[in-house]
Amino acid sequence: MIKIVTFMFLLGFSLSCLAHDPGLSSADVILKAHGVNVKITFSLQDIEAFVPMDSDLDAEVTLAEQEAAKPFIASWAINGAQLAFDEKNVQPAMPGVVTFDQKNNAFIEFQYPQTPGKQLQLHAEFFKQLPANHKQFVTIKDEAGHGISEKMLSQEDNTMTLPLPAANANENSTIAESPKASVFTDFLLLGIEHILTGYDHLLFLFSLLIVTRSFWPAIKIITFFTIAHSITLALAGLNIIDIPSQIVEPLIAATIVYVALENILRGDHPKGRQWLTFFFGLIHGFGFAAVLREMGITSYETGIMVPLFSFNLGVELGQITAAVIILPIIWWLHKQPKIESRVMPACSVLICLAGGYWLIERTLLN
């Protein structure tokens, strides 16, 4: 019975779930003397769910197909992100400009005319179409680039409001800052969510911990993993080291395959597991950083530092929560010889298959 439950649990993760749902976008709103500029950044994976680009269905999106999709992407974005003054929607002065980068991001820019009003609102209507866990980090700045306000939008709270100066105020008046949302808390929760829905990271951690039989070996593995991915997350987030996600993501899958194979071939007594954890943890750190850096997400007050720190802390809390739940089960199984001899190897085989599936998906299918 336990084997069947284990098989269904891991097979469900490996085949029916995406290891990484982008689930995060950003919007930069710049208030100028003659209007408002809005730049929205989306992952192509999010956009392609609503604006298919592969018109000939050959599983490859060409530059021509991307170019042909630009008007539809702009239309989708303008319907999804509505700008309003005093709750009256305004339309952009010209069609949106769509561009792409080499990191699978799409940028949509709009220019809105100057409109009198006491309050500016940004309504993110596209949350009705996107997955429930999608988040959008919005930053509002003045023409000089000084930050005014920032907020993390979600399906439950999809509107950002900013008070504007009175129409008869003098020229030296500045826009009143709205109450600042807690960037630290927003990215802390995002980090927790990322690790708990990042099934590849969880399976990697599970494959490391499955051979432990007591508290201290597990603590060493968790500590070495934490130190390692914190180092590379900081280096990547600060743009000291830049490794494309097209390289990092397959390597993450490869780490899962390697650890699972080691568990199968060497049993539950592999030596130097903490050093292996540290080395592979460095790779996973680059994967964590990509979530923020490649979307260009920063805080207007502290740049990338607060989002990076709080996101990493959230990852740690999520990781510890997962370990606290799974370790007692692992240790109990190790005390059941008849069950352990069958369940533990079966788990490692299934983890290896899941890692192999992601490795193929991220290399041959991308």
Task: Compile the SSE list and pairings.
Elements: H1 2-16, E1 24-32, E2 35-43, H2 44-48, H3 63-80, E3 81-85, E4 88-90, E5 97-100, E6 105-113, E7 119-124, E8 135-142, E9 147-153, E10 159-163, H4 183-197, H5 199-209, H6 215-237, H7 245-266, H8 273-293, H9 305-334, H10 337-363
Parallel strand pairs: 1-8
Antiparallel strand pairs: 1-2, 2-6, 3-4, 3-7, 5-6, 7-10, 8-9
Helix pairs in contact: 1-10, 4-9, 5-7, 5-9, 5-10, 6-8, 6-9, 7-8, 7-10
Could you walk me through the main structural features you see in this protein, from its secondary elements to its overall organization?
The protein has helices at residues 2-16, 44-48, 63-80, 183-197, 199-209, 215-237, 245-266, 273-293, 305-334, 337-363, and strands at residues 24-32, 35-43, 81-85, 88-90, 97-100, 105-113, 119-124, 135-142, 147-153, 159-163. It is of the alpha+beta class and 366 residues long. The protein folds into two domains: 2-19 and 186-363, no CATH class; 24-164, no CATH class. The strands form two sheets. The chain has a six-stranded mixed beta sheet with strand order 5-6-2-1-8-9. α5 (199-209) crosses α9 and α7 (245-266) runs antiparallel to α10 (337-363). The two termini are 37 Å apart. Residues 1-20 and 167-173 have low confidence and may be disordered.
